């Protein structure tokens, strides 16, 4: 029973971190139809900035998070303007190559500038140690990750469904040319959505740094995992990404607890089964 | 010029390049043999991606299937005849190709990419787990190929391996020239351009692509078996996502949809990788990244495409 609860708690925290990072990728893929393999690299940049801010500059954790999100977005905007804008609407192969290229460059630079070692982001005292939930105690930073995930999901739902920006965004997704003809500045919508997406990646990178440690190969290690979450959930769907992240997080965590010698075997088996049965993802719309 | 003559010239040029490299770099024959093995992998990827339009990031699964099949045949069953090992590798690659295509072809775009990644990762984890057969993360060793045709032993400098590799590459090249020009090859190109239209014309899309995958699998499996014979070990990296991604980079660098492009991309990539990663592997990663972005922005048809464009411009300037 104790093991089951541990697995459940770890799965939930891990799944939520996957959700926070992947939902940004889901937005880019659903809206701009860009297979952005460099998404994990932005989460990694966020982690590095937070690490620098808290360790080198001695800033508090909260400020570190804000710095990570703002810094990553500032790095991402010129990339969107000069590189990503050229591959909107290009064939998948072109997008894959361009974004893998960007990932490689970021890994190379990160290693050159910051070294190959693992970086840690010190937690504030409130998030250290366990929290007693009555029936069981759970690490505070994991609860924090779950809370952040829920807030992100709710906020995104509100932005997409209830704000004027959400209306323009959904219009651009459905028919970019028509939305443009009706006066929606689709380029602006794209740029803002891209910034939102990588901002969320940076947030997830910082919040999940305890579970997905920050190091130069982060961008490559977890690239596949994030891509899988989006594909299983269905590109562009918030609920889909949430379900997929929790489901795959549970499969991966359970596999690690019960059958560590099989590695990721069952994770990928589950992925193949789900994607082969639902080629558009669990909640995706067919074109 | 008629086609057979042009093909003959192409083969002669390739053979001449191989002979020049053989005498120019007698101490680097192991690297050159590895390049040939990787060329076969990239040629195979070109068949499914460049000619048939299937986007895949898991093509090393077929290369690894050939390598492990040939390696296990030699190390566990005592089948040490190199030609027989090559044949086993080709058959294993072909079977792996046909089977994996049944899954990969179910997806389109993003889901296709994810399925192909999942296939290679699944194969990787399985090979890691079945360490009794594959040696797991230590790699499969104990492969001792006997003399080629009973006459030519595999020497320390890799001369025999290199010559065998080049002869095999030329054979594969000629066969693939025939395949891509055949009605079947044209059908694959048609599917790449517009699968709906091909289906409307009454031609089967799914089974044609499965067949193409089986052919491509044989080529990749041959490459895997060659690397197993030449290096006498098979490692898990021959079944990795990284090798799959690198193969795609090589293909695009050389130029998709052209057999020469695939071979040129592999040659340039592996050669420079060997040189630069000797200095610092992370510099190599940065260089590849910059190269990829540059190719996408400035030379979308790869090195061969850029060369063709320059050639055409020169001819126009002269006339």
Automatic annotation (TrEMBL), chain A:
It holds the Pfam family BPD_transp_2. Keywords: Amino-acid transport, Cell membrane, Membrane, Transmembrane, Transmembrane helix, Transport. GO terms for cellular component: plasma membrane. The keyword Oxidoreductase does not apply. The keyword Cell membrane applies. InterPro entries: ABC_transp_permease, BCAA_transport_permease. GO terms for molecular function: transmembrane transporter activity. The chain crosses the membrane at residues 12-32, 37-55, 61-84, 96-118, 138-160, 188-212, 224-250, 262-282. One of its GO terms (biological process) is amino acid transport. It is found in: Cell membrane. CDD domains: TM_PBP1_LivH_like. It is a multi-pass membrane protein. Belongs to the binding-protein-dependent transport system permease family. LivHM subfamily. This is ABC transporter permease. It comes from Devosia psychrophila. The lineage of its organism: Bacteria, Pseudomonadati, Pseudomonadota, Alphaproteobacteria, Hyphomicrobiales.
Automatic annotation (TrEMBL), chain B:
GO terms for cellular component: plasma membrane. The chain crosses the membrane at residues 7-25, 31-54, 85-105, 161-180, 212-235, 247-272, 284-311. The lineage of its organism: Bacteria, Pseudomonadati, Pseudomonadota, Alphaproteobacteria, Hyphomicrobiales. Keywords: Cell membrane, Membrane, Transmembrane, Transmembrane helix. It comes from the Bacteria. The keyword Phosphoprotein does not apply. It holds the Pfam family BPD_transp_2. This is Amino acid/amide ABC transporter membrane protein 2, HAAT family (TC 3.A.1.4.-). It is found in: Cell membrane. Its main location: membrane. One of its GO terms (molecular function) is branched-chain amino acid transmembrane transporter activity. It comes from Devosia psychrophila. It is a multi-pass membrane protein.
């Amino acid at each position: 029973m104790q093991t089951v609860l541990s697995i459940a708690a770890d799965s939930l925290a891990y799944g939520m971190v996957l959700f926070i990072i992947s939902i940004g990728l889901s937005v880019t893929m659903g809206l701009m139809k860009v297979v952005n393999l460099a998404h994990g690299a932005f989460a990694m940049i966020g982690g590095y900035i937070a690490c620098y801010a808290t360790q080198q500059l001695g800033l508090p954790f909260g400020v570190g998070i804000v710095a990570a999100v703002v810094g990553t977005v500032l790095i991402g905007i010129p990339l969107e303007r000069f590189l990503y804008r050229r591959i909107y609407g290009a064939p998948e192969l072109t997008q894959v190559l361009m974004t893998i290229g960007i990932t490689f460059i970021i890994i190379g630079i990160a290693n050159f500038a910051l070294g190959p070692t693992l970086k840690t982001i010190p937690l504030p005292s409130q998030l250290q140690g366990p929290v007693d939930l009555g029936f069981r105690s759970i690490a505070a930073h994991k609860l924090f990750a779950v809370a952040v995930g829920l807030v992100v999901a709710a906020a995104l739902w509100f932005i997409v469904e209830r704000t004027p920006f959400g209306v323009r965004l959904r219009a651009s997704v459905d028919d970019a040319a028509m939305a443009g003809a009706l006066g929606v500045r689709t380029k602006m919508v794209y740029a803002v959505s891209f910034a939102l997406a990588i901002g969320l990646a940076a947030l997830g990178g910082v919040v999940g740094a305890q579970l997905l440690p920050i190091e130069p190969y982060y961008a490559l290690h977890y690239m596949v995992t994030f891509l899988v979450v989006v594909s299983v959930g269905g590109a562009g769907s918030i609920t889909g990404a949430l379900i997929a992240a929790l489901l795959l997080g549970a499969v991966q965590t359970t596999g690690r607890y019960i059958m560590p010698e099989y590695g990721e075997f069952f994770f990928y088996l589950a992925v193949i089964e789900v994607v082969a049965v639902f080629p558009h993802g669990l909640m995706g719309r067919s074109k | 010029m008629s086609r057979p003559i042009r093909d003959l010239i192409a083969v002669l040029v390739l053979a001449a390049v191989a002979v020049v490299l053989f005498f120019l770099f007698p101490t680097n024959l192991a690297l050159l043999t590895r390049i040939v093995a990787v060329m076969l992998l990239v040629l195979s990827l070109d068949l499914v991606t460049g000619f048939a339009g299937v986007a895949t990031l898991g093509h090393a699964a077929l290369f690894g299937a050939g390598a492990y099949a040939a390696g296990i045949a030699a190390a566990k069953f005592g089948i040490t005849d190199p030609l027989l090992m090559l044949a086993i590798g080709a058959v294993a690659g072909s079977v792996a190709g046909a089977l994996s295509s049944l899954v990969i072809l179910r997806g389109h775009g993003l889901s296709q990419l994810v399925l192909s990644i999942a296939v290679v990762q699944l194969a990787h984890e399985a090979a890691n787990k079945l360490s009794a057969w594959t040696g797991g993360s230590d790699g499969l060793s104990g492969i001792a190929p006997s003399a080629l045709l009973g006459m030519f032993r595999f020497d320390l400098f890799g001369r025999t391996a290199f010559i065998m590799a080049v002869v095999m590459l030329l054979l594969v090249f000629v066969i693939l020239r025939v395949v891509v020009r055949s009605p079947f090859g044209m059908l694959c190109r048609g599917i790449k351009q517009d699968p709906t239209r091909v289906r409307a014309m009454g031609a089967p899309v799914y089974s044609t692509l499965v067949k193409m995958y089986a052919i491509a699998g044989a080529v990749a499996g041959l490459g895997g078996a060659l690397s197993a014979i030449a290096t006498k070990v098979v490692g898990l990296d021959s079944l990795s996502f990284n090798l799959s991604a690198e193969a795609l980079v090589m293909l695009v660098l050389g130029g998709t949809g052209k057999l020469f492009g695939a071979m040129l991309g592999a040659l340039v990539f592996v050669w420079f990788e060997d040189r630069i990663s000797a200095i610092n592997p992370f510099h190599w990663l940065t260089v590849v990244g910059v190269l990829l972005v540059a190719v996408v922005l400035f030379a979308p048809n790869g090195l061969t495409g850029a060369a063709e464009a320059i050639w055409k411009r020169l001819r126009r300037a002269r006339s």
